[in-house]
Design a protein that fits this description.
Layout (H helix, E strand, L loop, with lengths): L1 E5 L6 H12 L3 E3 H9 L4 H12 L5 H12 L8 E4 L5 H13 L6 E6 L2 H8 L9 H15 L1 H8 L3 E5 L4 H16 L1 H5 L22
Parallel strand pairs: 1-3, 1-4, 2-3, 4-5
The structure holds BIS(adenosine)-5'-pentaphosphate.
């Protein structure tokens, strides 16, 4: 199964990507962590990425897209993957769709982890990452609203959006995601990673506005 988790900072993308990936027996791909690794390079690109991460700005598509597409072409992703933090812009989503299409596959689902700003601030307070400064969190939230949120309509239009209430115990959120996937793509492919199906063959998702809730 090929899946992406979309949500604002602190919504639990990384936490849930590990759990869902383990359940589906596919790798999680933590794009922020891959970028933080690149940011530690003492090259001009590394320094550029470091500056952008520190400000809470998105890294340019030309750097991120190639990195992610190369990662999902690795043999361990043949049966699927769980993306954490990609795509974050429409251009990234289109590049991902085109790339998977050339390989005769497709993204099965995009899970939107819904959470309030207050809960986000509670979760990130004191975590200690360089971009968890109060002002930078505010900027990351703005970046999510302006640049990433349009993806919800993109995936809803394509029948692939699953909206998840991301507030509650970690286990409960995991169960909600698995239930949402089962509802979207059917029990067989949700529980067995090798049975990824194209979205034009899946059953209709819940009809819910991406702006709702
Ligand atoms: P990234 O590392 O992905 O940061 P983020 O999106 O801001 O998200 P976080 O890692 O802060 O939170 P999360 O949603 O993963 O939640 P987590 O599970 O950690 O990206 C960093 C930067 O890289 C971006 O700002 C951008 O600059 C760049 N970047 C990344 N992708 C890019 C792209 N595609 N294009 C361009 N640039 C890109 O949980 C957070 C905390 O909450 C943890 O302490 C956790 O233990 C806790 N928690 C989790 N679930 C629960 C729960 N249910 N209840 C209570 N606490 C919980």
């Amino acid at each position: 199964m090929r899946l992406t988790l979309i949500g604002p900072p602190g919504s639990g993308k990384g936490t849930q990507a590990d759990r869902i990936a383990s359940h589906l027996r596919v790798p999680p791909i933590h794009v922020g962590a891959l970028l933080r690794r690149q940011a530690s390079d003492t090259t001009p690109v590394g320094r550029t990425i470091q500056r952008l991460l520190g400000r809470g700005d998105l890294v340019p598509d030309r750097l991120v897209i190639r990195m992610v597409l190369e990662r999902i072409d690795q043999p361990d992703c043949a049966a699927g993957f769980v993306l954490d933090g990609f795509p974050r812009r429409i251009g990234q989503a289109e590049a991902l769709d085109r790339h998977l299409d050339t390989r005769g596959t497709a993204l099965d689902a995009a899970c939107h982890l819904e959470i309030s700003d207050e809960e986000i601030r509670r979760r990130l307070a004191g975590r200690g990452r360089v971009d968890d400064d109060e002002h930078v969190i505010g900027h990351r939230l703005t970046v999510f609203r302006t640049q990433t949120r349009p993806l919800l309509a993109y995936y809803q239009d394509r029948g692939r959006l699953v909206v998840i209430d991301a507030v509650g115990p970690v286990d409960v959120v995991t169960q909600r995601i698995l239930a949402g996937l089962t509802h979207l793509v059917g029990q067989t492919s949700a529980l067995h990673p090798s049975v990824g199906r194209r979205p034009d063959r899946v059953s209709a998702p819940r009809q819910r506005s991406p702006e709702g809730g």
